[in-house]
Structures are given as C-alpha cells and as structure tokens.
Amino acid sequence: MEKRVVFRSAWLPYALVAPQLAITVVFFFWPAAQAFWYSTQLQDAFGLNTEFVGLQNFRDLFSDDRYLDSFRVTAVFSVLVAGFGLAISLLLAAMADRVVRGSLVYRTLLIWPYAVAPAVAGVLWAFMFAPSIGICTYVLKKMGIDWNWVIEGNQAMLLIVIASVWKQISYNFLFFLAGLQSIPRSLIEAAAIDGAGPARRFWTVVFPLLSPTTFFLLVVNIIYAFFDTFGVIDATTQGGPAGATNTLVYKVYYDGVKAADLGGSSAQSVVLIAIVMALTVFQFRFIEKKVQY
Amino acid sequence: MAKVTFRNVRKSYGSLEVIHGVDAEVADGEFIVIVGPSGCGKSTLLRMVAGLEVITSGEIAIGDTVVNRLEPKDRDIAMVFQNYALYPHMSVYDNMAYGLRIRGKSKSEIDAAVQRAAGILELAPLLARKPRELSGGQRQRVAMGRAIVREPKVFLFDEPLSNLDAKLRVQMRFEIQKLHRKLGTTSLYVTHDQVEAMTLAHRMIVMNAGRAEQVGSPMEVYENPATRFVAGFIGSPSMNFLAGKGAGAGKVALGHGGIVRFAEGQVETGREVVVGIRPEHLEVVDPANAFFAGTVELIEQLGADTLIHVAHGADAAVVRRPHGDSLETGAELHVAADPSRVYLFDPQSGARIR
C-alpha cells in the first residue's frame, strides 16, 4: 500500500524540498551546464580570448592518442581495483563472520581505513613504497626486486591500485558482512548435512545468496575507481610516469587546472558525465530487477 | 537404517550445563518424539545427533558407530528444519538433488531418486519451481523430499510443522506417519506440541530442563506419568493438581476440605502430597460420594465436550464432560474420580508416589 502525506498548504511541500533543490542546482546542475558550455569554447591560456568552436574540442579529444590511452588506463585500473577490492573484502568478511570471540574489535579495525582521507591514504602508501626511503621498497630490494614506481609505469599503477583497494575494502567489507549475516544459519547447516564441505558450501550456497550484494558493490566500486580515486592519484603518481596512471578523472583536472586547456577539459567532463549516466542507468535497470533467485 | 543410542549425553555452554545426562535407546525403524516446553534442550539434543552441536560428554551412537567426532556429512542422517532451510536460489529439483550431486552420484541415479521422492510426496508438478513460489505446506514437503532422496539411516525432524497453520499441520502429521510406514526409517522428531507427540510417536522422550523425565509409549506416558511435570505436560486440558495431606490408608485430605481416595501408593498420615486427577476422569456425583465440592466459575463449550472450571478454595480444577449439561456459573458441583485414576506426587521433587 502506498503511504502518502497530504499537505493542506500549497507552498509547504515546495518549501521543504527547496534546500535540497537549491543545493542540487547550485552544486550540480550549474557546474554541469557550465561544463557543457565551456566544452564548445576555445580559450587562450590567459582567459583573455574565448571563441565558439562547436564540437571541435570533442573531435580533438578522440583523435588524441593520450586521451584514448587514458581510457585504457582507467579500464585497467577500475577492473583491478574492483576485482581485488571485492575479492579481498569478501575473504575478510567470510573470515570475520566466523569469528566468535572479539569479533567487535576485529570488525572495528577492519572498518578504520574507511575513515582515512584518500589523499592521506595515497601519501601513506607512497611513503611505504617510496623508491629511496620506503620500508616496503627496502623489503622488495632485499628480495631482489627493483622497485621504483617513479619511472616504472606498471609499478606506479600497482601502487595506486593498492592504495585505492586498501581504502575501499572497509566499505565492501561492511556490506559483505551484513550480507553474510543475513543468510540463515540453517541453510549452511542443511548444506553441511547434505555433505558439502566448507568451500563447497561457500560457492554453491553462500555466494549465490550474496549475489545482490556483490552486484551492488561491483557497480559502486567501479564508480569509486572512476571518480573517487582522484585524491590517491594526485597525492602519489600525479598521473605519471608518462601517463601510466593518468585516469580520465585525473586528466580532466590536469588538463583544466595545470595545462589551462579549459575547453578540452570541459569536453572530457562532458564525456565523463555521459559515462556516469550510463553506469547509473545500468545499475538501476539491474538492481530494480535484482539478481533473481 | 539403524538404532540410535544416547549414553549419558551432556551439553554445556561454558559453565552452564543445559543437558544433564540423557540416556535412551531408539530401536531400528522406530519413530521417537522428543517433546518438551521451549528451552528444555530437545532441539539441542537433536542437533547433537546431527553433528551441528558438539557433544560435551557422553556418547551418541548411530548403529554401532559412536558419532561424537564425525562430521554431519559422515553420519548418514538427514534433517528437516523448522524453517525448511530450502536453498532459495535452486529449483525444487536442485534442492533435492544437491546432496546426491555432492556425493558424486550419476545423473541417472539422481534423476531416479528425485523422481521417486517427488512421486511419494506428490511434488512432481512443482520440480521446476523455486521455493519462494511454493506454499508453506509444499515447502515442507520439499524439505522432506530432500531428506528422503538420500535414503539416510536416520531422519531428524526439528519442529517441522510449527510454521504451518492448524489444518495443514493435521494433514502433514498424517503424511509424515504415512511416509514413515512406507520407508520405515528410524526417526527422531522434536516438537513442543503434545498432540503431535501423542499421535506420531511409537515412543516419546518427555524432556524438562535438560533432563529426560520419562521415556515410553504415548499411552504409557499418559496413563502412568513418572513425574508431576510429565503428568501436567501430556494431556489436554492438563491434569488438575490439588494440595493435600495423607489421611490414613488410601486417603488424602485436601487443603480446602474434602477427601480423595486413591488406589495405588502408600502415604503416611500427615505427609504433604500433590493430588493429580485428569479433567476427563473427574465425574459429577451426588454429595455422599464426592471427593470434594466446588463452585462453577466458568463453562467452556467446545462442541463435543464442555470444560467446567470449578473453584475449590484457592485451588481450581477443570472437569471435562460430554456436551449436554445444563449447568450455570455459581452452581455447586460435587466431583469424584475412580481411585485408580488418582496420581500422587511429592510436592518438592515432583516425583510420583507409588
């Protein structure tokens, strides 16, 4: 049954949603409209001269190899972050679910990284893996691995993946743990009596029942990897070396703020807006249907 | 098929002991009902047979094998849970086939077993459905189907009917009886419902506060309860209990006046006892033959029977009469019973005085 509040006053409902609308308009719609507008403009580096160029900025973008490479970097990065982020947190949640004594301490500690700001997390890992003074670098060198992410693109990618995954695990962990705890114990017991060992129980009973949670987290993690990892990248690799960690969102910032190409940067923003919209529509289509079982 | 033996089985959670040494033997092919109020440890006892709870001390044997240290899957048992515990993401067919697949049976063997079970339980038209598309009774049958396809040595039922409505419960009770007659598998059935216990059991174990108070056939337990708890728990409406004192051979003087005659047992004069008489054994008699007199407080018409609630001083008693009396509340009633139907219990220990 639908629950509805009926207001007698004509203006009260509008007054109540006005603050939310105002925030949305000022901080979301207005900047987005600006991005659309600037994406059709060409501006000189000092902002003295602006001219309308239509879709020229977009044409330039898609003929720019560096931009296309940024798509590849972002795809690799997102897949790695979402993949490792989900796998590790599922493992941790499955183990935490079995802990009986001291479970609160265990869970609290696992949730802590979520409270760390992205930039701080980035700096933390950058220090630990710093080519000259990092503790992890020292260990790796002892093991005979030459570690220098400042000049080695794959290592730089690995570093930002580690830092981003580490930050996101807590979030995933919380959802997985809640998902695991909502699975009735008797189902696991029934599977045990049916003869399934722990691994088999997990893959044939627990994991399928977690699929709505897993799907939701997959979408959230991909969006996280796309957009929320700016702080981590800016605090560590700053897109380098040689664009090896230059994700789409970092490139928007770099081209617009550092390289002063406002038009090109805006065009990239517009592309990103389109990607977010596509991802969101995809998510809602899927989640509304839910993962059926 | 196999017998199941309990030898001084105990269970503790930390320092709290919840099962205080249960001894019982379940014969091959027998249907045993473990009955008791909530929290008496009956489910825990069943879960120890299943291997879902660790046995703190004592032994449980299935057949001749002590199973204390065996995993559930190695005990060759099947269990029907109160909430059915069907795998929600699998079809009815897959739910029943799951255990067989794990045991590496061939496709044709699995199919034959599932089809046979589906035939017995009339599930054939539902095999492709998911559990959420089934009614409560159908889910219940799938849960039983999952148990019988494996042809285990022992069936364990953990309050399987308590989530069903009253009508369905009666029907499923009958189905379980039929199923047991057909398969003859040793079954342990836990319930808090004494009607289920009376109707299903070959023998029942009446549990109270972690102890098996009595083991016996339903009629044995009904006619010859070992303790006051068993006497009160089995039988509906439950037995009337009245305080009294020994008053010479075969007589007890009730606290609020009246003399009860009994046939069995010895009570020294002056000893405090509790007199137990079932409502169906109390009869309305003329004052000269009465055990005691009381005032009619409430009359409950059940259709075939009438329950008359009688106040006797601070005590109360229920008399069960066939329908047709023309009694009114406030009337004085004189009641008595066959002395062989009078039970005496110790007020402290609750033990029967024989």
Low-confidence stretches of chain A: none
Record field, number of beta strands of chain B = 20
Helix content of chain A: over 70%
The biggest sheet of chain B, with number of strands, parallel, antiparallel or mixed sense and barrel status, is:
6 strands, mixed
Q: What is the overall shape of chain B?
A: elongated
Distance between the termini of chain A: 25 Å
| Low-pLDDT runs of chain B | none
For the terminal residues of chain B, how far apart are their CA atoms? 38 Å
CATH topology-level fold name of the largest domain in chain B: Rossmann fold
Q: What's the total helix number of chain B?
A: 8
Radius of gyration of chain B from CA coordinates: 24 Å
What strand line-up does the widest sheet of chain A have?
1-2
How would a crystallographer describe the biggest sheet of chain A? 2 strands, antiparallel
* Percentage of residues in strands of chain A: under 5%
At the fold tier of CATH, the topology name of chain A is MetI-like fold
The biggest chain-chain interface is: A-B, 19 and 25 residues
What is the total domain count of chain B? 2
- Please provide the count of β strands of chain A: 2
What CATH architecture of the largest domain in chain B do you see? Answer: 3-Layer(aba) Sandwich
The tally of domains of chain A stands at 1
In short:
The complex is a heterodimer of chains A (293) and B (354). Chain A is 72% helix and 2% strand. With 293 residues, chain A is mostly helical.
Detailed description of the structure:
The complex is a heterodimer of chains A (293) and B (354). Chain A is mainly alpha-helical. Chain A has one domain (64-289): MetI-like fold (Orthogonal Bundle). Chain A is built from 12 helices and 2 strands. Chain A has helices spanning 12-38, 56-62, 65-98, 103-111, 118-128, 135-142, 153-181, 185-193, 198-228, 230-235, 248-258, 262-289, and strands spanning 41-43, 50-52. Chain A has a two-stranded antiparallel sheet with strand order 1-2. The longest helix of chain A has 34 residues, at 65-98. The two termini of chain A are 25 Å apart. The mean pLDDT of chain A is 83. Chain B has 354 residues and is an alpha+beta fold. Chain B folds into 2 domains: 4-233, Rossmann fold; 240-345, OB fold (Dihydrolipoamide Acetyltransferase, E2P), CATH 2.40.50. Chain B has helices spanning 42-50, 92-102, 107-120, 136-149, 166-183, 194-200, 218-223, 228-233; strands at 4-13, 16-26, 31-35, 57-62, 65-66, 77-80, 154-158, 186-191, 203-208, 211-216, 240-246, 251-254, 259-261, 272-277, 283-284, 292-301, 305-312, 315-322, 332-336, 343-345. In chain B, strand 9 (203-208) and strand 10 form a beta hairpin. In chain B, helix 2 (92-102) packs parallel to helix 4 (136-149). The relative contact order of chain B is 0.12. The mean pLDDT of chain B is 90. The chains are: A mainly alpha (293), B alpha+beta (354). The interface between A and B is medium-sized, with 19 and 25 residues.
